[in-house]
Write a structure and sequence with these properties.
alpha/beta; Rossmann fold; Ribosomal Protein L25, Chain P; 3 domains; seven-stranded mixed beta sheet; 13 helices; 25 strands; elongated; RNA-binding
RNA sequence: UGUCCCAUAGUAUAAGGGUAGUACAACAGAUUUUGAUUCUGUCUGUCGAGGUUCGAAUCCUCGUGGGACAACCA
């Protein structure tokens, strides 16, 4: 049982630190900025940060990086909390960078006092010029020479609201010629007379990311501060502040952000899709956000499994969306309730089916004894549910069944009939036989067409001895198709989703990423559902047999059911016949 | 013409000087009252050139390719 699961590079760092006795327990944090909804990229970071402390002991804080009052909103805070909880993780402390504004202010005063920070009156244009470029060094300006006393007074006045937005900033005094541009006297505080979602109007100066993030990590004794690759150049500054402030030395480690094929994964771009109405909102089921996946019927297990399987590294990447789909199918196959639904109906009449009495009085709804079907023609068939799912089986270890009404008029899937079938087609065709799932074998005798030559109806005969479960007919058929009894059918709206973009990596294509949006990413149809689905439950995954996994949408109302297709089934026939 | 990061099958990720492995995808077959599931098999890979070494995906050098860095964003 010594299954050596290989570690990712961050786990290796953690194990080394633990082994060296550097820490007793590790502390991580998940630090979203509340300016958008969480997406699959965040899910990776969440699984990493929370997964690490779960595995190695310690805890993870949820910390909102709310240092920019003009873009951040409480709505986002709530959605982020929902998403993290739904993914199955618990944070130790709910914290905000804004909780530390007083401490941060004190830190700034300390740096000023040490001669390591100064107030600069330059305009942003001038500052940008003085900063140089990646290949040319920057130059000092006159304000850099200000005395500690003057800096202290000016910074105090900035805080007191004496100056307008943009009039002055506080900068660290490091080195204007440093090769790392972030070390060329980075701005620590800017003036923004803006209302903050938590501190209200208490402050008119706000720290920037670099003068908030590392310090917040340090205040919380974060041992491993994990972020994405683009923060690599920030690490030097991160360490500089910690060193000069003489505070707890949190360490920053960087991994490559997770991208997904056929979608975009930046909050800026996702916000555009929302604002410009390409989607109905952040949780439109076509979005790669966690709330969208939840609404669509993905499970937290599947998403965690996906994050686990792709792993993490420092190489830029685009993970294959089909792996995510594999993960969700794998989970749903085990838990989803099986039902029959016809998406695109073709009516068939079973000409020799005369039974007008019930041979079986079992009810077919979810436990309620209803006489709903008793007024109609047919019989009730017991059809087994999900054979994969232990919890759906009864105590006698028998597979749970449900009653499904059968009659002489049925809907089958239009694509399950072909007048001129190709070679290995084993569904219905003129003179051909097929099994109706859980019912009888039927034979197609006659094809009825309208004036235009379209097939409108099929006349079939059934084999009475072929009753599912006790078939004595001796007939073997290759195909089994699903069906719904016409007089008993109910209807529901089905929302079928396809990938949001036509290309694998929209961000790397020429021009505006929005030109690659797939115009057919949403298809809405009305389907015929077996009657038990009238009582479909929310938060429950259904497999519409042979058609895919479906999940009740939040737009669903009693009498007006709306299902999202979570993901289709693998379809090797469709794949091979193309 | 700077500094930093990265480079393993189509994709993602292992192998930490000693047989290049796993998953997804693709393909082929078996089973199947879901053309699903399950099972079996096949295919494809170390960016290049040098060097160190008995031995290099791994260490070194130089290339090549990709990415990051000049927001009072995070």
């Amino acid at each position: 049982m010594t299954e050596e699961k290989s570690l990712n590079f961050i786990e290796e760092i953690v194990e080394d630190d633990l082994e060296a006795g550097k820490y007793k327990n590790i502390v991580t944090r998940f630090p979203p900025e509340p300016n958008g909804y969480l997406h699959m990229g965040h899910a990776t970071a969440i699984c990493l940060n929370f997964g690490l402390t779960k595995k190695y002991g310690g805890y993870t804080n949820l910390r909102f990086d709310d240092t920019n009052p003009t873009t951040e909103e409480t709505e986002y805070v709530e959605s982020i909390k929902d998403d993290v909880r739904w993914l199955g993780f618990e944070w130790k402390n709910e914290l905000y960078a804004s909780d530390y504004f007083d401490t941060l202010y004190g830190y700034a005063v300390k740096l000023i006092s040490k001669g390591l920070a100064y107030v600069d009156d330059s305009s942003s244009d001038v500052m940008a010029k003085e900063k140089g470029t990646p290949t040319e060094p920057g130059v000092d300006n006159e304000f850099r020479k200000r005395t500690v006393e003057e800096n202290l007074r000016l910074f105090e006045e900035m805080k007191a609201g004496k100056y307008k937005d943009g009039e002055r900033v506080l900068r660290a005094k490091i080195d204007m010629t440093h090769v790392n541009m972030l070390m060329r006297d980075p701005i620590m505080y800017r003036i923004k007379h803006a209302h903050h979602h938590r501190t209200g109007d208490k402050w008119c100066i706000y720290p920037l990311y670099d003068f908030a993030h590392g310090q917040s990590d340090s205040i919380e004794n974060i041992t491993h501060s994990i972020c994405t690759l683009e923060f690599i150049p920030h690490r030097e500054l991160y360490n500089w502040y910690i060193e000069k402030l003489e505070i707890f030395p949190s360490k920053q480690y960087e991994f490559a952000r997770r991208n997904l094929s056929f979608t975009v994964m930046s909050k800026r771009k996702l916000l555009q899709l929302v604002n410009e109405k390409f989607v109905s909102g952040w949780d439109d089921p076509r979005m790669p956000t966690i709330s969208a996946y939840r609404r669509r019927g993905y499970t937290a297990e599947a998403i965690r499994d996906f994050c686990e399987r792709v792993g993490i590294a420092k190489r830029e990447n685009v993970a294959d969306i089909s792996l995510l789909e594999f993960c969700v199918r794998e989970h749903l196959n085990k838990i989803a309730v099986r039902r029959m639904v016809v998406l695109n109906p073709l009516k068939i009449v079973i000409t020799n089916y005369k039974d007008t009495n019930y041979t079986n009085k079992a009810n077919y709804t979810n436990g309620e004894n209803t006489n709903y079907t008793n007024k109609k023609n047919g019989e009730i068939l017991e059809i087994e549910d999900n054979v994969e799912n232990d919890t759906l089986q009864t105590t006698n270890n028998k597979i749970q069944t449900r009653g499904v009404p059968f009659s002489n008029e049925l809907y089958i899937e239009r694509e399950d009939f072909m007048e001129n079938p190709p070679k290995k087609y084993f569904r219905l065709f003129p003179g051909g036989m097929v099994r109706l799932k859980g019912a009888y074998i039927i034979k197609c005798d006659e094809v009825i067409k309208d004036a235009a030559g379209n097939v409108t109806e099929l006349h079939c005969t059934y084999i009475p001895e072929s009753h599912s479960g006790h078939d004595s007919s001796g007939i073997k058929v290759k195909g089994t198709i699903h069906w719904v009894s016409v007089p008993h059918a109910e209807t529901a709206e089905l929302r079928l989703y396809d990938r949001l973009f036509k290309v694998e990596d929209p961000s790397s294509e020429e021009g505006d990423f929005k030109t690659y949006i797939n115009p057919d990413s949403l298809q809405i149809i009305t389907a015929y559902i077996e009657p038990s689905l009238k009582d479909a439950l929310p938060n429950t995954s259904y497999q519409f047999i042979r058609k895919g996994y479906f999940y009740l949408d939040k737009d669903s109302k009693p009498g007006k059911l709306v299902f999202n297709r979570t993901v289709g089934l693998r379809d090797s026939w469709a794949a091979s016949s193309k």
